[in-house]
Amino acid sequence: MKALLSLLLLLQLLFAMSQAQCPAPADLKNPNGTRICSQMYTDDSPYYDLCCAGSVLVVPAGEDQPYMPTAFNNKISSLVVATRCELTVWYKKGKTGSTRKFKTGAYPRLQEYKRGLFGNWNDAISAYYCKCT
């Protein structure tokens, strides 16, 4: 019984290690070395080291999207903004509704960032603009 418990704990640890962790802002680069402004992810977790998971939307510098791609519309739960970059997001399509600017850094749980009086930014992004200096 003790061996089975040890094996289960080991499997749980390996599973946790295989899950995502938010990349450092300085690490956001394409394989050819070109700059990525931001990466947005569809999944988060109550555990910070398991955030930035699920499908990823790679945002190049200067990209301006008044309409989020269908697979990501209102599904972003965590994001990372590259060094010397800023991501502006909107709550509604067409760049309307509430807005917020995310500066350089990792934002693993968007539910911790207020949007208005009662809302938060988890699953609430419908448009974006990303710029770098």
Automatic annotation (TrEMBL):
Q: What is its main location?
A: other
Name the InterPro entries on file: Syncollin (IPR028137)
Q: Can you supply one Gene Ontology CC term for this chain's record? A: zymogen granule membrane
Annotated signal sequence range? 1-20
What UniProt keywords apply to this chain's record, in alphabetical order?
A: Cytoplasmic vesicle, Disulfide bond, Exocytosis, Membrane, Signal
Q: Name one GO biological process term.
A: exocytosis
Compartment(s) where it occurs, according to its Swiss-Prot or TrEMBL record? Zymogen granule lumen; Zymogen granule membrane
Stated membrane topology is: Peripheral membrane protein
Protein role: Functions in exocytosis in pancreatic acinar cells regulating the fusion of zymogen granules with each other. May have a pore-forming activity on membranes and regulate exocytosis in other exocrine tissues.
Q: What is this protein called?
A: Syncollin
Native species of this protein?
Python bivittatus
Encoding gene per record: SYCN
